[in-house]
Specification:
The complex is a heterodimer of chains A (about 500) and B (about 270). The longest helix of chain A is centred in the middle third of the chain and has 22 residues. Chain A has 17 helices and 14 strands. By secondary structure, chain A is of the alpha+beta class. In chain A, about 30% of the residues lie in helices and about 25% in strands. Chain B is globular. Chain B contains six helices and ten strands, in the order αβαβαβαβαβαβββββ.
Chain lengths: ~500, ~270
């Protein structure tokens, strides 16, 4: 167990990060130690990192070295907003200090170099050569594992600069691959990909408030205003967007994000505003203004070209656009999984042939998978077939009566059977219908189940009772020896 | 007013309400009604229908009838039928199954399923959909008898349907009838299907026994039909048991005016 965070008193008593707990206790017996809740601190730190997107859209919380994260901002192209790099660094760190954090920052052209500077306690801006700036820093600032650092110092490598002239192959064999990786990353020879916490928006508009706001209505009004200015920019560029994100920056360093999707690219501010107001009616505790919101940003992603269209007098409106808007609104209020359209899959298994897909995901229909119209198919399908008790006059014959949901039905007409077997190409994922087959599937070899016809074949019947109700029922398996196949109810006809 | 009898007072009041309620209807009555001849069965559009059946086990029959009836409402500028269902009731009545729509001549792409969690969401979605001018019909399937689905809610939906020209079909189950503002209320029971060619034992064309429980259709109340689906439309069959004694003469009451559906009729 090691120390990962210290307060000022502890530092004054000479404790250091990375020290073992027993060591620290020996040095300072009255030391109070708490175990770190890594998940919680990481989540809190991530929230905190998100809040920094006020300064730059590309924010990363690096978790490979620190116990909860190192905050990395990609400030390419944003420094002019803070009138220069020095000013920006000063503003960001000053803001953190104001909040009571001990923060140190550095600006360099690679993450590795900035990390090295910060972890050697230097708040610098490297504009000249990276190699020079790093030459005098200790090897410990290279994001290496403890044993690697220990071996490096044992061998006599004190500073990063000493490594430059050494033979790379011998370094690799003695200290591991990661030394070269970290060195190259720090010096900018190797690119270090980062994954931004918040997806980078291509276009955004923001508004800052002198006094924080808290009411959802105010937020929505502001979102609408931002949508108007965003749509002006989109229109000037001849573009529209399919996804819109609303970022609410709270005074106490949290960011709330709401996203809405549109089925087709749009730039209509009224539509965007309505989508957000409907989204706001579906809140489940994710909106909490806390002490107030001091900045709102509306961002558009999935931007694509849309052309302005001339509306003709004699043009027939096919309603497609109106419908897309309706689906957008419904999806934003009811959730994207509430508005569904059938999508056919190339399969013979009745419950697999049609998938319900969110309307917003416009999948191209596959003409091959269109169902066959020759065989009767019910209008309603039970999601899970229900076991029924059936009496058939002869084995393998059509059913004569059944008991379903504790009510008896007597059949007067029936057609069938229509035999549907498991597909040989997906035989290993058989739909397990009975308790018995479920346990069998768990215990027996799957290959055995695959070849076992008695458990995979379904015989479907359309059976009509004396009240005119028509049901789609099926029998699993065959009459073999003394086993009685199970019957299930699967759907209703008109 | 003292000189007038009670009946006369009622008649004057009715006439006044009628003139008051005429105005919004005329504003929205631009769509020509579908060809409605006595030998064809066409469900009136731009209004609210309530379709009752006795138990959820007849759910197939009501959905089949609704789809068959909405087929004629689909057009180039109203290409879609919305089906609304509470997510909790899927286990009871099942999900609408797209391959089966083909037997009613409905393109599976024309049916959009909306699954909602609560009845309030369902009512909201129904109203929003009815206000949309590109939706041919909205079918709301409600198994339970929720409180929120009351007279006020149904009145709202009915007015939306009339304004925007959509058709609203409310599928209900059970024997109880609550007060709703539906213009027409139908009672549907499945009927033993027709003969299938070359196979006497197999089920043939779907048939329904339909009864108008509330409202006037073609100027007549309480009519009964036996309908059969032919693949292209409804076929009206003669009712089998015509020897039943005629029902007792209904209680004398004021006949609803032609604008009667605009009046606030309760059950």
């Amino acid at each position: 167990m090691r120390l990962v965070a210290l307060d000022e008193t502890a530092i004054r008593h000479g404790l250091s990060l990375g020290q073992t707990v027993s060591d620290a206790r020996a040095q300072l017996p009255e030391l109070e130690v708490r175990e770190i809740d890594q998940e919680l601190t990481q989540a809190l730190f991530a929230d905190f990192a998100d809040w920094h997107s006020y300064a730059s859209p590309l924010v990363v919380a690096l978790t490979d070295m620190a116990p909860y994260g190192d905050l990395v901002l990609d400030i390419t192209g944003v420094t002019h907003l803070f009138s220069g790099e020095e000013q920006m660094l000063a503003t960001v760190t000053a803001r953190l200090k104001q909040l009571g954090f001990t923060a140190i920052g550095a600006i360099a052209s690679t993450i590795g170099a900035a990390w090295a500077l910060v972890h050697s306690g230097r708040s610098e801006i490297v504009s000249a050569s990276l190699a020079e700036a790093l030459a005098n820093l200790p090897v410990a600032s290279l994001r290496l594992a403890d044993h690697q650092i220990a071996r490096l110092t044992q061998t006599g490598f004190k500073t990063i600069g000493q490594l430059y002239s050494r033979d790379r192959k011998s370094l690799q064999s003695r200290f591991g691959d990661s030394l070269l990786l970290r060195l190259d990353q720090a010096l900018g020879r190797l690119e270090e990909p980062i994954e931004p916490r918040i997806p980078v928006a291509e276009l955004f508009m923001e508004r800052r408030f002198a006094d924080p706001i808290g009411l959802m209505d105010d937020v929505l009004m502001c979102a609408h205003d931002l949508a108007v200015s965003l749509s002006c920019r989109l229109e000037a560029a001849g573009q529209g967007a399919k996804t819109f994100h609303l970022f609410l920056y709270r005074v106490d360093h949290k960011v709330m994000t709401f996203s809405v999707n549109a089925g087709r690219a749009t730039r209509d501010p009224n539509h965007i505003g309505r989508l957000f107001s409907y989204r706001a009616e579906r809140l489940e505790g994710e909106y909490d203004a806390g002490f107030g919101i001091d900045m709102i940003r509306l961002a558009a992603s999935s931007v694509c070209e849309i052309d302005a269209r001339q509306i003709g007098v004699f043009e027939q409106d096919d309603g497609a656009q109106t419908l897309d808007r309706l689906y957008d609104l419904m999806a934003s209020r009811l959730g994207p999984l509430a508005v569904l359209r059938p999508y056919f899959v190339n399969s013979y298994i009745p419950e697999r042939i049609v998938n319900l897909e969110p309307v917003l995901i416009a999948t191209e229909p596959d003409p091959d998978s269109y169902p066959d119209t020759a065989t009767p198919r019910p209008l309603r399908l039970l999601v899970t077939p229900e076991p029924i008790g059936v009496i058939a006059e002869v084995p393998d014959g059509p059913p004569a009566s059944m008991v379903w949901r504790r009510v008896g039905y007597r059949f007067i007409k029936a057609s069938g059977p229509e035999r549907i077997a498991a597909e040989w190409w997906s035989g290993r994922q058989l739909p397990a219908l009975t308790e018995a087959s479920l346990t069998l599937a768990a215990t027996e070899d799957a290959a055995h189940l695959y070849f076992d016809e008695a458990r995979t074949i379904r015989d479907y019947y359309v059976a009509e009772d004396n009240g005119g109700r028509r049901f789609w029922i099926f029998r699993v398996g065959l009459y073999v020896a003394d086993t009685r196949p199970a019957w299930f109810m699967h759907g209703f006809f008109a | 007013m003292q000189g007038l009898s009670k009946q006369e007072t009622l008649a004057t009041l009715r006439a006044r309400i009628e003139t008051l309620e005429k105005r919004p209807l005329l504003a929205g009555a631009s769509s020509a009604p579908a060809a409605d001849t006595p030998d064809r069965f066409v469900l009136p559009s731009s209004t609210m229908h309530e379709i009752f059946t006795d138990a959820p086990r007849n759910a197939g029959a009501t959905l089949g009838f609704s789809l068959a009836a909405t087929r004629g409402l689909l057009s180039a500028n109203r290409p879609v039928v919305l089906y609304l269902q509470l997510a909790g009731e899927t286990a009871e009545t099942g999900l609408p199954y797209a391959p089966g729509f083909l037997s009613f001549g409905i393109d599976p792409d024309a049916v959009i399923l909306i699954r909602v969690e609560t009845i309030v969401q369902l009512l909201w979605a129904a109203e929003e959909a009815l206000a949309c001018h590109a939706v041919a019909a909205v079918i709301a399937d409600i198994c339970s008898d929720p409180k929120a689905m009351d007279f006020t809610a149904s009145r709202r939906l009915g007015m939306r349907a009339t304004e925007a020209g959509g058709t609203f079909l409310l599928l209900r189950y059970g024997l109880g009838r609550t007060a709703t503002a539906a213009r027409l209320r139908w009672h549907i029971m499945p009927e033993i299907s027709g003969e299938k060619a070359y196979d006497a034992k197999a089920p043939g064309d779907s048939r329904w026994r339909l009864k108008l429980e509330k409202g006037l259709w073609r100027g007549k109340p309480n009519e009964e039909w036996l309908l059969s689906w032919t693949g292209n439309g409804f076929d009206i069959l003669p009712l089998p048991d015509t020897d039943r004694a005629p029902a007792a003469a209904p209680l004398p009451r004021a006949l609803p005016s032609p604008m009667g559906h605009r009046l606030s009729q309760t059950a």
